[in-house]
Specification:
Chain lengths: ~230, ~220
């Protein structure tokens, strides 16, 4: 019985969004159960579904998987988005590690005070333009290929596009010094599965709002006093 | 040329220690370059060795690898410590990521302000005894095998023994409610490569002290 993967998380981006992106890019349909109440979360906990008492949780291929990175690795491997050998996997892992760190600066953004948000916006833009984007710009320039690794579409490309779009939401002209990334963004956005995911009505979630923050805090009873990193 | 892997980091545990453990447990000899000054670090950056301007850096098989997880995954894959198929890898990844969350609390511990130390200590104790150790106790109890995944020694076992010892350094009696983990600890400690790594003179680093904290702050001030 291979049903569709089922995602358990809040109705919002958070740590689940990269998983939605990867499944969508792989053309895999999935179902979602949204946590809205503390009771739902406690029921999941009591049922033993959450190995470390945390979400994201993804039911896939008979497993109740937790830990975002483990889930992403599995999906990438299963759908041949993880390179052709150990060395290509090493490159993909390195590149995804970078975009993960960059998106990490954005993850806690909605939970910050208004004052800290402004400071954090500047940090995000500074890290993107001085540390991360230059690295990917150079990789693309050096090999001149369409994709980051092995001249083949991979998880690294999906993750980088996700990161670019998220940073652009904070500063719309952030790619202005990066012609390779501008071309990359256009190319990857036009891949059919990704194009579909970027259209209204897909399972892509919007920029987190106050309602999302309030739901997370209420369900997890955490993240009331978050400081900028 | 195809020499030993070379690790570039500070002379201390930090984010490089799990890599030292994994190479040690795999029986792979390696060399180390220790960062002691800001100038050394800036030179590395200018030389283009650090993809995201950060260490750990591991030179291995002609690659200058950065990003701790990427390095660990490569080593695990190369030395057959990553399970036999995608599903075993999924289990290993889940276990390793959980343990890494616990180790992250220990990693950051020396850098918190003094007034937060007690709260953080209690947090480590609470998470170890209520969230992480019970999981692995149950995994071992349920399958009754010597190793966490697939009845075979893997990266998950190495990461767990490292974490157990790190938590015990803070809370010596932490395993008292976990008989499976006590037996696991003894079994792992007696594996020849790990036994060797646990002996004095190995590349294993001591717990972070004030000098280490000072060096980190000096080199990475930003």
């Amino acid at each position: 019985m291979a049903g569709k993967p089922k995602l358990y998380y809040f109705d919002g981006r958070g740590k689940m969004e990269s998983i939605r992106w990867l499944l969508a890019a792989a053309g895999v349909e999935f179902e979602e159960e949204f946590l809205e109440t503390r009771e739902q979360y406690e029921k999941l906990l009591q049922g033993g579904s959450l190995l470390f008492q945390q979400v994201p949780m993804v039911e896939i291929d008979g497993m109740k998987m937790v830990q975002t990175r483990a889930i992403l690795n599995y999906i990438a491997g299963k759908y041949s988005l993880y390179g052709k050998d150990l060395k290509e996997r090493a490159l993909i892992d390195m590149y995804v590690g970078g975009t993960d760190d960059l998106m990490g600066f954005i993850l806690m953004f909605p939970f910050l005070s208004a004052e800290d948000k402004e400071k954090q916006r500047a940090v995000i833009v500074q890290k993107a333009t001085s540390r991360y984007f230059p690295a990917y710009e150079k990789i693309l320039k050096d090999h001149g290929q369409d994709f980051l690794v092995g001249n083949n579409f991979s998880w690294a490309d999906v993750h980088l596009l996700e990161a670019i779009l998220m940073v652009e939401e904070k500063k719309s002209d952030v790619l202005s010094g990066f012609p390779q990334l501008q071309a990359f963004k256009a190319r990857i956005s036009n891949i059919p599965t990704i194009k579909k995911f970027l259209e209204p009505g897909s399972q892509r979630k919007p920029v987190p709002d106050d309602k999302y923050v309030e739901t997370v805090r209420r369900v997890l009873r955490m993240y009331y006093d978050v400081k900028a990193n | 040329m195809s020499g030993k892997p070379r690790l570039t980091y500070l002379n201390g545990r930090g984010r490089m220690e799990p890599i030292r453990w994994l190479l040690g447990a795999a029986g792979v000899e390696f060399e180390e370059t220790f960062l002691e000054t800001r100038e050394q670090y800036e030179k590395l950056i200018k030389g283009g060795s650090l993809l995201f301007q950060q260490v750990p850096l591991v030179e291995i098989d002609g690659m200058k690898m950065v990003q701790t997880r990427a390095i660990l995954s490569y080593i695990a894959g190369k030395y057959n410590l990553y399970g036999k198929d995608l599903k075993e890898r999924a289990l290993i990844d889940m276990y390793v990521e959980g343990i890494t969350d616990l180790m992250q609390m220990i990693l950051m511990f020396p850098f918190a302000p003094p007034e937060e130390k007690e709260k953080n200590f209690n947090s480590i104790k609470e998470k170890a005894t209520n969230r992480y150790f019970p999981v692995f106790e149950k995994v071992l109890k349920q399958h009754g095998q010597d190793f966490l995944v697939g009845n075979k020694f893997s990266w998950a076992d190495i990461q767990l023994i490292e974490a157990i010892l790190a938590v015990e350094e803070k809370i010596p009696a932490v395993l008292s409610g976990f008989p499976q983990l006590q037996a696991f600890k003894i079994r792992m400690s007696n594996m020849p490569t790990i036994k060797k790594f646990l002996q004095p003179g190995s590349p294993r680093k001591p717990p972070p002290d004030d000098h280490y904290v000072e060096t980190v702050l000096k080199i990475f001030k930003n």
